[in-house]
TrEMBL record:
Its main location: other. InterPro entries: CcO_II-like_C (IPR002429), Copper_CuA (IPR001505), Cupredoxin (IPR008972), EfeO_Cupredoxin (IPR028096), NosZ/Cyto_c_oxidase_sub2 (IPR051403). This is Cytochrome c oxidase subunit II. Keywords: Copper, Metal-binding, Signal. GO terms for molecular function: copper ion binding; cytochrome-c oxidase activity. It comes from Silvibacterium dinghuense.
Amino acid sequence: MNRNAVKAFSAVVLAAAFAFTPFLRAEPRTIEVHAKRYAFVPDQLTLKKGEPVTLVMYSDDVAHSLKIDGLGVNIKAMGSEKAEQTITPGQTGDFTGKCGVFCGSGHGKMLLTVHVVDK
């Protein structure tokens, strides 16, 4: 192969590689949430519409869960264990997460707000 052919072939290969780069998926961002009587820490999250994120929940005491209607989140972690779920928010807005496992008298106050914004 002559030098010009090698250069042309290399240019085509590089162009093809760069053309497909936007389609490669990056690893989802990871957000840790700690659940304890009677709070989620942090108690507010901001996510981007269409961007995958892995929620990792740790239970710091007894069994807890995190349910977020509208985002399809339902994570349950038993005492001192972790659980995770990857989601890709499909709509913008504010969503309320609640503990779905009764954990005592303050259970109803255990809330987490998720703000989903445009990219």
